[in-house]
Amino acid sequence: MNTNPKATLSLENGMKFYGEMFGDIKNIAGEVIFTTSMLGYQESFTDPSYAKQILVMTYPNIGNYGFNFDFEESEKILLNGIIVNEKCDNSNNSLSEMNFEAYLRQNKITGLCNVDTRALVLAIREYGNLRGAICLSETPAHEIKQMIDEFDDTNVIQEISTKNKYYISRKYKDITKIGLKIAVIDLGCKKSIINEFIKRESEIVVFPFDADFQEIRDEKPDLIFVSNGPGNPKNATKTIETVNALIGKINICGICMGHQIIGLALGGDTSKLKFGHRGINHPVKNLMNNKIYITSQNHNYFISNLPKKYIDITFQSINDGTIEGICSEKFMIKSVQFHPEASPGPLDVKFIFDDFQNI
Amino acid sequence: MPFNHKIKKILVIGSGATVIGQGAEFDYSGAQACAILKQENIETVIINDNLASIMTEKGVANTIYIEPLNIEIVEKIIIKEKPSHIIGSMGGQTALNLLLELQNEGILGKNKVRVAGTSFESIENGEDRKKFKKLMQKIKQPVIKGDIANDVISGVKIAEEIDYPVVVRPAYTLAGTGGGYAKNEKELREILICAINISAIGQVMIEKSIKGWKEIEFEVIRDNIGNCVVVCSMENIDPVGIHTGDSIVIAPTQTLNNVEYQILRSAAIEIVNAAKINGGCNVQFAVNPKKFEYYVIEINPRISRSSALASKATGYPIAKISTKIALGYNLDEIINEVTGKTYACFEPALDYCVIKIPKWPFDKFLTAKKQLGTKMMATGEVMALSNNIESALMKAIRSLDINQHSLENDDSKTYRTQELKRKIETPDDERIFYIAELIRREYNLEKISEITGINLFFLNKIKNIVVMEEELKNYSIDNITSNLIKKYKQKGFSDKGIAEIIKCKESQISNLRIEYGIFPTYKMVDTCAGEFEAVSPYYYSTYENHNEVIITEGKRILVVGSGPTKIGQGIEFDYCSVNCVLALKKAGVQTIIINNNPATVSTDFNISDKLYFEPLTLEDVMNVVSLEKVFGVILQFGGQTSIKLATTLKKMGVNVLGTSPESIDKTENREKFDVLLENLKIKRPKGKAINTVQEGLDAAKEIIYPMLVRPSYVLGGQGMEIVYNDDELTNYLNNIFKKNNKNSVLIDKYLEGIEIEVDAVCDGDNIFVPGIMKHLNRAGVHSGDSISIYPANDISNNTKKKIIEITEKISLALNVIGMINIQFIEFENEIYVIEVNLRSSRTISYISKVTDLNVVEIATRIILGEKLKDIGFTGLFKEIELFAVKVPVFSTEKLPMVEISLGPEMRSTGETLGVGKTILEALYKGFLGAKINIPPHESIILATICDNKKEEFLDYAKRLFMLGVRFIGTIGTTTYLRNYGIEIQSVRKISEPNSNILEVIQSGVIDLIIDIPKRNNNYESDGFKIRRISAENNITILTSMDAVNYMTQVMEKNFDESDLNIFSLDEIF
User: Fold this and answer.
1) Which stretches in chain A have pLDDT values below 70?
2) What is the ipTM of this complex?
3) Phi-psi region of A48 (alpha: psi -120 to 50; beta: other; left: phi over 0)
4) Do B269 and A348 touch (CB under 8 A)?
5) How far apart are the first and last CA of chain B?
6) Is A135 tagged catalytic?
7) Which residues fall within 8 angstroms of residue B805, CB to CB, at 6 or more apart?
8) Do A318 and B343 touch (CB under 8 A)?
């Protein structure tokens, strides 16, 4: 018999969704978003881009193959809450180390289960992403309202970006193929991105989001990488400024928010999507050769405007036509909106990391 | 690349009559392909000899040939129709093999026909095991150790190299026919003889066995420029070792993590790219459950059973998209019909899980060896969707229509734990119930997993249900709470299931549930997990908070489908349901369909205005009725599955449209039926219901042998036999009463007369008979297994008149509104009625197609209130000038230990059509379609004839002998025929010392076997073994004198295939 306490997700528009709280039993607030990814839940939970959000899984049965600490995309879970239709208590996979509930308890993350997640997703589709709070049933209404009102993620990048610069030295596997020296601007970088660079024999320096131009230049990197991250790219003013200064001087690449920041630094603009692209089934078209790729995506914002001169759009979303990738020989830039490192998601676009090597 | 303008006219090859391994799913894919061709305004020609299909329905294509899928016939059609292109990837293995044959014979080249879709080279890369293996090695995809053998000796050698156990797969066969597992050389030799024989090219693959590994499937679509998407991933709950068609399958995969999944996904795409498939392709993997490693098992470079399932599971229409690709389009140019906005170039995201359970024919074939393995045995399948696995499983189980509403099963309770353990070692159709019983007895879950190879994840789900069932036993109707009911409903328990466990009536639970306001919420299948607004009217139930169905304005009618494809209830009923829906739509009615069979056209969400993919139990149907507030329900087109709901639905206040349930009851209740016929002064064979052996013997004195005997509690001729004397009767009754002594046995006089069948429509005042059909097999053979001829040529006008009179009398007496089917026997100039069905029958598609009438549409209009007179149909319809025969098609070779010879119990899985200027031409073509070999004149026939038929056989033997046939016979037959101067060589029966009969059969010298048994179903008899061996070795066998008669005539006629006439549907009438 289930002994999880009754709890409710209250949205800022007044809608309520009922379920049971599990994991870390505490009230939390956040922006409620959904992903349609049917697997790779652990990679999603640990994706820093979800920081401070409440993630709804559209696939109803979560935890089926358990949890394994090798699948982590960051040191700790940064999202505020997880909502599922059904949590699986008896996982089975040869790699499984822990069950769902235990995993959330260990990570002090609040979960809400037995929720009509499809109804919730349809609401998000209709009203866009909303702020909301997962609270135990007895929580007074005013308290819930206050939590929702007070929820603020303006400084989320600052909170999760590395505080200090650090180095990841080259792992020499093949002495004849020494890779690039890469400066990573960390806005909440996923581990698997770093791993892709490591695989390509790179030497890596990771900078905080507010690193300045000179600091980076001093390291003499071959390539700057602007990472993925949570929230609104426009909040990363310092990063935009730094990237702006680096343009045309050093090769720059970016993924997801990094891509948006590059767009802003080029003088473009970003806008918010109604409810984002989150899932591992998003088709994008390579406008250079018309090939289509199924990609992993996780973003709320997109480059809505871009100076046309010297800049090519390389990838486009098939579903809504939004910009999915840009490049510029003149500005020495290549960036993509989707996640070539996947994790979770299809491995079809790993070649993007090779492309980054030769801008 | 947009539309390929070179495509002017296209020939689509269908899959032919339904057999095990190739069922309704190909009618669904064929119909989808044709819908696209129509949409694109491409002149389309279809050839398919499956006369029960929607694909061959008028209007689906410009020209339709229901002609044998035979290379000569197809060549004739190509010459006549001059298509520019041909599609062979929609009609399963049959069409693909035919396409290859056409190519290899140079017929396509000669006639300048090009293939649309996947190229020959690619098909061969996928189908030819040697080439496939080579291709996999080239792209470094791991394949199982093994090699190809063309004979037994090299096969044994390979096995020794790779070590036993090994698995054998013949090349170019469907559903793994003829394959198997061998643990040692002896077993291997047995399998090899059969497998090499059955392979179209005498080639088998021998591989290392990986029994127990996870079986994972991907449905991939690749377009003309190499874009690939994975439409659906599926995990077989039963591991490798059980054919995927016989496995319980779940979508999406459940026990793979992201890393494992993505590796397999990438591999699938790489394989499909390397093979250069244009369109849908199925890729199967075996995955080690202990440590991640995998092998590629095989690919199917065509539309398959799995792709039909994947289409229904995701809402992504694979056959349609594949057809578009074959026409030149690419994935980013094709709109996703479900959303109407996004493109086909994406991977569906599910927000529910899907379970498929196969439907096996073992309830029909009590003697069958039920052990599941690498050869598929299921005739059909059910699918269920829900938000949790337990619920999907429970819904699927009650969809099977096997009277199971929980995992608790009476049969499994009778076994000791030791026995249960043994039972789950060799999987059969009831394994899931045995596993549940073991879990109930607290047997170690890990051990079950070890024995069965079923992942603990799934066993835990079964355990969840068992635990819930056990907990429920603590409650009664008096203390069951709202919360508790809700919890059980969420996990898929039916009201009946709950009622059975807490021992009350189903209606008590239903009433309580309604009182508590617990109703299902319906969710939409939209391919995108809610991300985009969808327009697909495709729903499944859950018990949550939000119901997505919007009730539309206007008159709504619910059509109840026919459930899983099974013997006795095949796709002909889906044909009826679909035509009913289309007729309702024409009449401006909003149509709603409920069905649970993923392989059908009726569950294509484009057919009706709304589709509910749900079980067909009273509760599930009532839920839809109440929610939709339908004007009425139509039950007469879904076979026995739907019609049996009539009485109860009416009682619950539902408007059952058409003939009243009271009338239906009068035809199904034997006593009421007797009274009815007596009042109408219509004869029926004398009969009686008895409850003891003595009563039976007494009745025999009155009725007089031969008699037809059958248990009263089964439908469709199950367990029916003909008895000739007291001994046989006693034997039969003892057997039946031992199994079940609560139900009576029905005894009828057996009249060995001519069987005549009529389908009619009645509006309460008048009747309309589209045609009278005659069965070529004598009474005693189930009507579904008999060759049926139209028009009934040698029936006198007087008899026809009488038949029409009786049909009218019965129809009017029962106030039939809609369909009626009556079977008659003409015996010694008297007409007897043997059966009346107040529903659409198996022969509706047949009679509709040969008369150019849409009988279902006529009946639907009558059900809606029109009158026959007003629409211009009364009396007997004008007969055609050609002859048509419906020939049954069997799959018995795929079902070990099942009797081959025909009897009162139906065994065929499909049917085919033969049309000719003469009866013999029609028959010849029917035989061709049914893959009955017509031996040349100088052939060898093995004859073994029972004593009482020897005399009758003599005439045929003489005629065949005159043609040049050489006979081989068993001792009795040999002696008898020699006395009449017929040369015959003798073989020794199995029971005789140094028997050689089986070796002779297996040696391949025999062209035809005539085996007329005295009685069938005795699986220890010589005859039974002979019949099995011949079926398994693909040798045509005739088991009735009628068949011998027609075969003799056809052989005498000496048809040359090049002389045969071909007729499109338009040319028949």
Assistant:
1) 1-2
2) 0.96
3) alpha
4) yes
5) 42
6) no
7) none
8) yes
